[in-house]
Q: What sequence folds into this?
């Protein structure tokens, strides 16, 4: 019987031949990922109440990111607790190595076809590797850690096809802002979003991760991309699983819930106005009167390729007067790569502040916050009111190219003007 | 015992159910303001055994568990809607709140007396019963035990020697 990628993974994880959208099945979890915020401090009390330990410490990955570097009293205490728990349980622990959604695949924990639960709303990022990965709250995560299983309602699939090819200066982030604008933040209906089409196939792994990451903003349970040679290449590099996985795809005649088709070639760079990613518009429509801060950060927008894109704009230019640029590379590995090829040096030469490899201002838990009344352009995924600082701060979302170009121009601007000849 | 129907439309969101600005007041504080944006009389008027009947996409918005918890706290027998937002549905089941769908709820009016028979998949009114889509069988034990944590407690207590 023809099936979707989501159905194939869930059928396997729940020990069934086939599954049908709408039915509820109990699935065995291949891997559970938790971080310092929703992890030990929240799950341990529940485990204690249940009087049990972890179902399988080898299938649990703990990553510290939300409170790193621990520059507040509360944050430091949470990190202490997290480290003590890691030592006691013996789970794989990545401490200060970067943001969970980026660290998990780059340390080889993910493979296509896996059924993975994450204690964070951007867990759909794992979908970029053809894993069915989704986010749950702390109570459900405690249940997973205790039992290794979770119930799931088999989702329908919302196929999002991008034909053609992205133009120069247009990135995966622009695709996602456009989708949030056109389909809305509940366009994903908590179903399985799956990206497909030649424009997606042409994207690198890190660009694909941006698409899957922001399936969360689209309201999908996950954001899948069928594994291909690009996936295999990435996983081989990180010493992870080896393909091919010819059956891990949505069969051409499988029944899907919806099938949207878009033209990548027609897409302009996008920005989203405060206070929702769904407030997307072509960058040319943004107000140009002022800009105070530019932020390149988060699991969404500060991976190596995001940094390299921004550096293409910044090389040989300087920041506009009065604009400060902050860069929080998504992971230590990506930062090392950026340091090795001179990308990081470009940021330093324009006077950008380099922040730790952590959630930073995106989570808003640390000492750095956006000040009242300021306007920021950011490569992060969310611009909800008050998330990154004072509720009167304005956060505009854009691609790393758009953020860098805006920091140079001193106003929100189309990066393509600065890319010519670059 | 019969309760009463509280009728709502489409897209009742988590901020109406558990208003963010009352989050600090804990579940009691939230309960006092539950749904006040649309029905100011709801929080004071709701009685144990009452049933919310709503349209499409009930519980849309954030993933906050309090949106389901507050309804349980108020003693609602459950929520019947045309469709539920996915995360709200998960949270409701895991917190022991009965949530059922039905394709056609058009004749169910506000204020009517009713009894929700969640296990049987029925909403009993004074003069008839409305058939509801049954709760998936593997979720029934979770609901019967009052949610995920009590359910697991029972499971692990049973497994102990
Ligand atoms: S970087 Fe931001 S979006 Fe990503 S996990 Fe951290 S807080 Fe969440």
A:
């Amino acid at each position: 019987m023809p099936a979707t990628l989501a159905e194939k993974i869930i059928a396997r994880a729940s020990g069934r031949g086939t599954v049908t959208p709408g039915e509820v099945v109990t699935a065995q979890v291949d891997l559970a990922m938790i971080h310092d915020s929703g992890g030990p401090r929240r799950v341990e009390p529940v485990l204690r109440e249940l009087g049990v330990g972890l179902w399988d410490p080898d299938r649990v990955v703990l990553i510290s990111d939300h409170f790193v570097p621990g520059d507040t009293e509360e944050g430091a205490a949470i990190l202490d607790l997290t480290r003590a728990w890691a030592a006691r349980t013996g789970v794989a622990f990545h401490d200060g190595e970067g943001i969970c959604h980026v660290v998990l695949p780059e340390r080889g924990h993910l493979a296509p076809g896996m059924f993975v639960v994450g204690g964070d709303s951007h867990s759909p990022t794992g979908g970029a590797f053809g894993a069915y990965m989704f986010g749950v709250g702390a109570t459900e995560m405690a249940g997973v850690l205790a039992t290794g299983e979770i119930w799931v309602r088999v989702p329908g699939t919302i196929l999002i096809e991008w034909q053609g090819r992205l133009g120069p200066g247009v990135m995966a982030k622009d695709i996602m802002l456009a989708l949030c604008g056109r389909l809305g933040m509940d366009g994903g209906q908590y179903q399985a979003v799956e990206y497909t089409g030649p424009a997606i196939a042409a994207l690198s792994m890190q660009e694909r991760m941006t698409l899957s990451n922001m399936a969360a903003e689209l309201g999908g349970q996950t954001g899948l991309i069928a594994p291909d040679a690009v996936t295999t290449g990435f996983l081989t590099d990180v010493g992870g699983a080896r393909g091919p996985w010819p059956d891990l795809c949505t069969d051409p005649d499988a029944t899907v819930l919806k099938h949207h088709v878009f033209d990548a070639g027609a897409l302009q760079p996008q920005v989203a106005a405060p206070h929702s990613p769904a407030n997307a518009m072509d960058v040319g429509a943004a107000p140009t009167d002022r800009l105070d801060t530019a932020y390149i950060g988060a699991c969404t927008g500060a991976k190596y390729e995001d940094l390299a894109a921004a550096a293409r704009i910044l090389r040989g230019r300087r920041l506009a007067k009065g604009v400060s640029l902050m860069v929080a590379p998504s992971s230590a590995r990506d930062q090392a790569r950026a340091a090795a090829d001179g990308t990081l040096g470009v940021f330093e030469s324009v006077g950008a502040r380099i922040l730790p490899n952590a959630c930073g201002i995106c989570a808003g838990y640390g000492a750095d916050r956006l000040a009242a009344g300021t306007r920021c352009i950011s490569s992060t995924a969310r611009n909800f009111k008050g998330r990154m600082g004072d509720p009167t701060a304005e956060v505009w979302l854009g691609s790393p190219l758009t953020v860098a170009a805006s920091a140079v121009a001193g106003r929100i601007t189309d990066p393509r003007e600065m890319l010519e000849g670059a | 015992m019969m309760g009463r129907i509280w009728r709502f439309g489409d897209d009742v969101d988590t901020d109406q159910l558990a208003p963010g600005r009352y989050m600090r007041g804990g579940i009691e504080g939230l309960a006092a303001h539950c749904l006040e944006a649309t029905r100011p009389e709801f929080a004071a008027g709701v009685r144990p055994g009452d049933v919310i009947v709503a349209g499409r996409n009930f519980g849309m918005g954030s993933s906050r568990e309090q949106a389901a918890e507050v309804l349980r706290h108020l003693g609602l027998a459950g929520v019947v809607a045309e469709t539920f937002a996915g995360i709200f549905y998960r949270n409701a089941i895991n917190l022991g709140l009965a949530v059922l769908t039905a394709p056609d709820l058009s004749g169910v009016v506000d204020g009517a007396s009713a009894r929700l028979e969640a296990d049987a998949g029925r909403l009993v009114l004074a003069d008839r019963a409305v058939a509801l889509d049954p709760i998936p069988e593997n979720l029934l034990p979770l609901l019967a035990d009052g949610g995920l944590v009590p359910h697991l407690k029972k499971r692990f207590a049973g497994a102990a020697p």
In short: Helices of chain B lie at 14-17, 26-31, 42-45, 66-73, 86-94, 140-144, 148-159. Chain B is about 30% helix and 15% strand. The mean pLDDT of chain B is 93. Residues A 65, 99, 101, 120, 122, 298-299, 359, 362-363, 381 surround iron/sulfur cluster (CB under 6 Å).
